Amino acid sequence: MPKLSEILKNRGYVHQFSSETLEEITDPPAGGKRTIYLGVDPTADSIHVGNLVAYMVLRRFADAGHRIILIVGGGTGLIGDPKPDVERPLLDMEEVQTRAARLGKQAQKLLGESKLTIINNHDWLGQLELIPFLRDVGKYFTVNSLMKKDAISARLKSEEGISYTEFAYPLLQAYDFWHLFKTEKCDVQIGGSDQWGNIVAGVELIRRKENAVAYALTTPIVTDKATGKKFGKSEDNAVWLDAEKTSPFEFYQFWLNASDESVADYLKLFTLLGDMEMAAVMEMHRHDPAKRHAQRLLAREVTKLVHGEKESEKVESVSAVLFGDADASTLDKKAIAVLVTVAPSHTVQIGDAIVEILVVAGLATSKREARQFLTDGAISLNAAVVDETKVVKESDLVNGIAILRRGKRNVRVLTLK
Q1: How confident is the model at residue 326 (pLDDT cuts 50, 70, 90)?
Q2: Do 306 and 110 touch, CB atoms closer than 8 A?
Q3: Phi and psi torsions of 77, nearest 5°
Q4: Closest to 416 measured CA to CA, from 406, 272, 399, 408
Q5: In terms of C-beta density within 10 A (0-12 exposed, 13-18 middle, 19 or more buried), how is residue 401 classed?
Q6: Average pLDDT score over residue span 68-78
Q7: Does the pLDDT at position 81 exceed 60?
């Protein structure tokens, strides 16, 4: 069984850490266990796939027997971590607490059966008094050091500047770490690479106030190697773990469409698969990349992790029918309902001509183009190539639907009026 430090390094989870060696954090002597925390501000009411790496690191620590704390920022969320370009809008208390609760539920699902403690930092930040805070915490921070932080430095150079509210944010996050160190014996904070300065501020506060050692560990920014773009965007739209914001089918498709250049990295970062299983699927992928063996496994595993095994199986079967790897007879009623909802669809009547349907359904721009597609053998109905004499028959509707396809990716689900 490899050490946790080896798993984290081999999987690509590690960007920076504050100790001399990673093992000092992950593998304490005499089999000791750490208490690790991740802080999440409720800037949205759902986890985004771009933030998923940090949760996967938490899962790895939990599986290794360490104690996990998730801080949902009901307090810090009222202030806002400085962005490098613009001031965050202030949220009201009710919205912040509602979002915090939803984030906590998603985290519980991601971390499986592991022991997870969820705490809202408004519990203590909301009780702070200004003068004691400035004396007991503020005195450990210099304005000079705060101005060196990337986001603050960028804002100071902009025309907009930065409010004192956001300028003071690092003090609050540092206070969180110190508070957890005192009350929960928490000695490790993890976060994205953009949080390094804030996390180290907490490490330093604990050192100065308690003369004790605490640790910082950050994850890298993940990019798509094919495009160079930051991971987590799909046609400029965020991909969320909340099924109401990004449907399980859309979520599955996001992973299925992973680039060949990045799929091996994504399997390491976003699944719990073992090295042998990943190596086997990548070997299959190298021999026949067109079949997208690696992407299929990636999509199945991440969707199962986020939405559950049943939902993963359902959207996988729907995807197979939609893109020609299976027929509609394999779907049950619930899966058909999903298919009709997520896929472009068109209603037809018995006797409708295929040429007319292609134009009205948007698979051809004109009857002339439709006939050309049909002559070229580019049109299939339920996986059978059809010609321009084809009309819709009752027998074409399997379980109430038919799959009309032009090529591989241009699909319409036909239903009866």
Answers
A1: low
A2: yes
A3: -65, -20
A4: 399
A5: buried
A6: 89
A7: yes
Say whether pLDDT at 90 is over 90: no
CB burial of 360-384 (b: ≥16 within 10 Å; e: otherwise) equals ebebbeeeeebbebbeeebbebbee
pTM: 0.85
Region 408-414: what's the mean pLDDT?
84
Domains and CATH numbers, the chain: 4-219 (3.40.50.620), 233-341 (1.10.240.10), 344-416 (3.10.290.10)
The mean pLDDT of the chain is: 89
Segment 353-378 mean pLDDT: 94
